[in-house]
């Protein structure tokens, strides 16, 4: 027969309530009692019954994660950060993707209702997520990643894409580059829009006589490669290329090197994100580092704090105190860090 929570309580000589508080990570259990209960539960190989726990606590012990896609190093790093925090709190993840199609996003989000305690949503398509987020928010805590919402109860965390793009342009200009091309991301993507805005404003501020040079892109290697081919056929080539993400930068880099150009001697190439692959290509990629796993971890902690507020705020005063905890978790946008590698060293060879 399977071991029950009553068996653990009997063997540890404590109440069933004490076993429950211990296994659910509540702090109001003496340390020696906590250790004894955990040791007994381990010895007896006790596993809480998920369905019973869900019925008694009205919790699924699961966080939902809805992303534009699951392919690529960015999303794998983001989920890794979320998963690390979830495991620390003995929570599971239910991960879904709408494959970059805004029309499928609503279905993916609605499918999470009743299956998760809270939602982490990355949605670069502002118009697509607005109505469904407002629909779900009253009953389901939601944290948006790199997106905004007018719904009062929806929290958000973001990357300073605008500031990061400005910093890269500032670096390239300080390194002696004057003809700086930019490979943009999807037109309806929030991150891409902010990075393009940063490029344009930094260029106008620091090189007012220079013309912007924007090529279309889709945040993938193929579009970066196509942009590289376009630059190769230009009457006058740029002396630097700034791609709105690393995948496009790598595609462009391959195109230029394949054509026999020296990077960065002939053209410098830089990206944005600092995916793990960026340090293993040749030449290694200069980029703006976004700690992607940290972004996922911070979003997960914010959601878990919100869940704690919602479940423990028994009166107005306590709710106000716990709302302060949420505000402490919500911080300024994550600031990217300039990482200088071989593909974008300063002209003259120095870094």
UniProtKB/TrEMBL annotation:
Keywords: DNA-binding, Repressor, Transcription, Transcription regulation. Gene3D superfamilies: 3.40.50.2300, lambda repressor-like DNA-binding domains. Residues 320-345 have a biased composition (Basic and acidic residues). Coiled coil: none annotated. Residues 320-351 are annotated as: Disordered. Residues 3-57 form the HTH lacI-type domain. CDD domains: HTH_LacI, PBP1_LacI_sugar_binding-like. InterPro entries: HTH_LacI, LacI/GalR-like_sensor, Lambda_DNA-bd_dom_sf, Peripla_BP_I. This is LacI family transcriptional regulator. The lineage of its organism: Bacteria, Pseudomonadati, Pseudomonadota, Gammaproteobacteria, Lysobacterales.
């Amino acid at each position: 027969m399977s071991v029950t929570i009553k068996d653990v309580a009997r063997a540890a000589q404590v109440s069933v309530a004490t076993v429950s508080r211990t296994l659910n990570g509540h702090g109001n259990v003496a340390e020696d009692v906590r250790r004894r209960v955990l040791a007994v539960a381990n010895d007896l190989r006790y596993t809480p019954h998920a369905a019973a726990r869900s019925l008694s606590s009205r919790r699924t012990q699961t966080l939902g994660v809805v992303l534009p896609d699951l392919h690529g190093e960015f999303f794998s790093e983001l989920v890794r950060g979320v998963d690390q925090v979830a495991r620390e709190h003995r929570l599971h993840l239910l991960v879904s993707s709408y494959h970059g199609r805004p029309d499928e996003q609503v279905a993916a989000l609605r499918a999470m209702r009743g299956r998760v305690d809270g939602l982490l949503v990355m949605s670069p398509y502002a118009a697509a997520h607005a109505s469904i987020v407002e629909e779900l928010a009253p009953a389901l805590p939601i944290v948006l990643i790199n997106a905004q919402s007018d719904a009062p109860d929806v929290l958000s965390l973001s990357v300073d894409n605008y500031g990061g793009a400005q910093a890269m342009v500032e670096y390239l200009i300080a390194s002696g580059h004057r003809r700086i091309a930019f490979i943009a991301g999807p037109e309806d993507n929030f991150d891409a829009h902010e990075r393009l805005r940063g490029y344009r404003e930094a260029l106008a501020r620091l090189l007012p006589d220079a013309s912007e040079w924007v090529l279309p892109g889709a945040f993938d290697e193929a579009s970066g490669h196509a942009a590289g081919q376009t630059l190769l056929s230009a009457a006058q080539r740029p002396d630097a290329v700034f791609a709105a993400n690393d995948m496009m930068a790598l595609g462009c880099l391959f195109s230029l090197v394949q054509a026999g150009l020296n990077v960065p001697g002939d053209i410098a190439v830089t990206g944005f994100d600092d995916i793990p692959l960026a340090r293993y290509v040749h030449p290694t990629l200069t980029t703006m580092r976004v700690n992607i796993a940290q972004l996922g971890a911070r979003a997960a902690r914010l959601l878990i704090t919100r869940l704690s507020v919602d479940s423990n705020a028994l009166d107005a005063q306590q709710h106000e105190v716990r709302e302060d905890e949420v505000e402490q978790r919500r911080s300024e946008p994550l600031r990217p860090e300039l990482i200088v590698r071989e593909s974008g060293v300063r002209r003259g060879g120095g870094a």
